[in-house]
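Task: sequence design from structure.
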């Protein structure tokens, strides 16, 4: 309503993959990328309960009707039922062959139904924790599952444009079982035969498949979307059903009550009678009356489509019956939240957008933030993507200025911090004035992409390197426009250095004697600035050097490459001091901390690492991004680092006063690695138990190993 943030539920490092509010609305279950689940209280904002039993990301969470149990499905193909009140796991249900996409409790009965990417829908009897029925009627992955009409009908959404509906009939009394059921040709699922062998001995007409309930296909509803169902949901009253694919359209359906369906059928009947009267003599009328049959389209009616401003990531909705409006809230792919309202009972319902939550971030679908820089007073941060340049206040984290630009690749603040220069993918230099937010000038600098800019140490000019195999030198100058009296800043080109390969990165040495140029042939060439004569070639990388930096005293140059290595070279003789295997994927950015030989690297492996270029040691790893990191910037004071990533976030890191003890960091790293390897092992948590036992829901961690050792020690002591 107000668009204000009222609460942040602080998790750990992992990305959130799934949310589910409890039925009483007081708690929120949150599933994470690493398979842990935390339950937060929405009153205090604290997450006191943690469930860790899954090995991979959580894909589905659902509470039962009272909120006492929670069913979680994961990419590791297991479903686990947790006891929320007792804060423990009840049992693990194994059977799916691929990630689980949805798990639902039935209201009245102790049953669970799960769907998976392995095209199966499985029914579980929670008293015996066995799968008593597997539905194999789908040809593609089942992405969504809802129960409607008092759990008498199941609707599934798959990778094609049909929503399939299944009628569920519960076999309660033995009397029902005595009526002969039509035999099914489907093979019975193996679990059933194992668990209840006496079934064959009874030789009833009932196939063992239909033990607790029968499931018959009732028909299907066609969606307008051609792609897979991403989310399929039904509101609390069970009257409104909605689904969306990978596009920006939500399709809304209404599930009619029995009375409404009856009304509709009566109308149909009348029509049919009329037609019959017109067509024929009285004799045939009876036959035609009978031939009016109820189709699924009579029970589930399309209401309308809601079109959002961007692709939908997920949605949720509230419907206040009987004549009330439907409110739908969407989280969109470009990080907006929008809400729409709709009158489903109106003859031609029109959705209306009621509100949206948007904060001043980049909203580009085409690219992420590709360049960052700090102002000389450490206060302003510049970030630029394909569509805009934004200036942020570092202290308040507010966006101060937004200026439209072309696809930006590199940037810096002009000395004095009143203007900024952007280099673009089309080879242009764009000069902006910060006070007014205006574009002062656009200069065609290079014929290809302008990959790199470096400000000269005397702050009178800068150098650019581009994909047109040239390095150009520029000086700042003040020019007078015809119509104004005041002078404004401009730039003029002074020299060009032509090379044989595309230029990826350029850097001035601090004494302004040397210029380092990284080329597409995997070498870094060093030139004298005054004569542009060749001085050194640094070769050794297997793939091109994407980023590099020279230390404040001009003694060292560090280069980061797509071959995942960082090499540290001496600038006096061009000898390689050390080659470090830095990241598990390309090194995207590298920058020295001012007045020190420490440097930061950012990699496509989602990590930022800090290194010591004298002792060649890895100091620390900053984890927080969930996707590739494109660039980072270290503030001139060295107290802050800002980074941008493909996960659509900019993150600000601050240096603390607390000293870092390297041995402790190593120890923590080793523990984390050990825990990862332990979780992946296939040996059972309790020695000697077989994998089939599904009562144990925990997973092995350092804590469980330590606890087990403590118990063993205690038993030894007791024996003695």
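Answer:
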């Amino acid at each position: 309503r107000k668009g204000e943030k009222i609460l942040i539920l602080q998790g750990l490092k992992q990305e959130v993959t799934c949310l589910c509010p409890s039925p009483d609305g007081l708690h929120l279950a949150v599933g994470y990328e690493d398979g842990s689940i935390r339950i937060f209280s929405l009153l205090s904002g604290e997450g006191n309960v943690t469930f860790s039993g899954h090995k991979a990301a959580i894909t589905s969470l659902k509470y039962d009707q009272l909120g006492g149990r929670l069913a979680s499905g994961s990419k590791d193909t297991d479903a686990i039922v947790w006891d929320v009140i007792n804060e423990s796991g009840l049992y693990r249900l194994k059977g799916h062959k691929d990630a689980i996409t949805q798990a639902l409790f039935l209201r009245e009965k102790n049953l669970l139904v799960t769907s998976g990417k392995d095209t199966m829908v499985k029914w579980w009897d929670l008293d015996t924790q066995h799968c008593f029925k597997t539905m194999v009627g789908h040809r593609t992955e089942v992405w969504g599952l809802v129960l409607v009409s008092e759990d008498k009908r199941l609707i599934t959404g798959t990778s094609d444009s049909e929503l399939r509906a299944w009628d569920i009939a519960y076999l309660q009394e033995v009397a029902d079982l005595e009526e002969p059921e039509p035999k099914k040709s489907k093979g019975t699922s193996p679990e059933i035969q194992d668990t209840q062998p006496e079934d064959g001995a009874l030789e009833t007409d009932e196939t063992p498949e239909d033990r607790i309930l029968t499931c018959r296909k009732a028909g299907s509803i066609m969606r307008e979307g051609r792609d897979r169902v991403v989310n399929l949901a039904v509101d609390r009253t069970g009257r409104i059903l909605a689904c969306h694919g990978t596009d920006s359209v939500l399709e809304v359906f209404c599930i009619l009550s029995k009375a409404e369906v009856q009304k509709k059928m009566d109308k149909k009947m009348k029509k049919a009678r009329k037609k019959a009267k017109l067509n024929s003599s009285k004799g045939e009328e009876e036959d035609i009356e009978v031939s009016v049959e109820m189709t699924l389209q009579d029970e589930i009616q399309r209401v309308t489509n809601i079109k959002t401003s961007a692709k939908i990531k997920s949605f949720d909705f509230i419907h206040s019956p009987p004549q009330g409006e439907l409110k739908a809230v969407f989280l969109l792919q470009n990080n907006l939240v929008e809400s729409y309202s709709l009158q489903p009972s109106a003859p031609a319902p029109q959705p209306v957008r009621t509100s949206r939550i948007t904060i001043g971030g980049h909203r580009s679908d085409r690219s992420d933030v590709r360049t960052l820089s700090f102002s000389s007073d450490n206060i302003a941060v510049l970030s630029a993507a394909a569509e805009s340049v934004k200036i942020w206040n570092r202290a308040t984290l507010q966006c101060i200025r937004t200026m439209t630009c072309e696809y930006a690749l590199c940037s810096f603040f002009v000395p004095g911090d009143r203007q900024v220069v952007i280099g673009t993918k089309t080879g242009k230099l764009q000069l902006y004035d910060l006070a007014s937010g205006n574009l002062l000038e656009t200069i065609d600098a290079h014929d290809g992409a302008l990959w790199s800019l470096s400000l000269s140490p005397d702050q009178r000019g800068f150098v650019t390197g581009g994909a047109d195999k040239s390095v150009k030198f520029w000086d700042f100058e003040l020019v007078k426009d015809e119509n104004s009296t005041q002078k404004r800043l401009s730039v003029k080109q002074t020299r060009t250095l032509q090379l044989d390969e595309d230029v990826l990165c350029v850097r001035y040495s601090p004494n302004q004697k040397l210029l380092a140029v990284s080329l597409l042939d995997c070498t870094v060439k060093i030139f004298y600035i005054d004569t542009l004569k060749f001085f050194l070639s640094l070769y050794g990388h297997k793939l091109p050097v994407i980023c590099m930096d020279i230390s404040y005293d001009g003694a060292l140059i560090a280069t980061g490459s797509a071959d995942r290595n960082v090499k540290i070279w001496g600038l006096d003789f061009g000898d390689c001091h050390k080659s470090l295997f830095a990241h598990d994927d390309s090194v995207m950015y590298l920058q020295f901390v001012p007045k020190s030989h420490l440097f930061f690297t950012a990699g496509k492996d989602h990590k930022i690492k800090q290194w010591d270029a004298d002792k060649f040691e890895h100091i620390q790893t900053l984890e927080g991004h969930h996707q590739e990191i494109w660039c980072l910037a270290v503030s001139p004071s060295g107290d802050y680092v800002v980074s941008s990533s493909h996960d659509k976030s900019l993150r600000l890191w601050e240096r603390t006063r607390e000293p870092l003890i390297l041995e402790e960091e190593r120890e923590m790293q080793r523990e984390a690695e050990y825990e990862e390897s332990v979780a992946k092992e296939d040996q059972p948590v309790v020695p000697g138990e077989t994998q089939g036992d599904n009562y144990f829901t925990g997973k092995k961690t350092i804590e469980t190993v330590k606890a087990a050792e403590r118990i063993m020690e205690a038993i030894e002591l007791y024996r003695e």
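The chain is about 10% helix and 45% strand.
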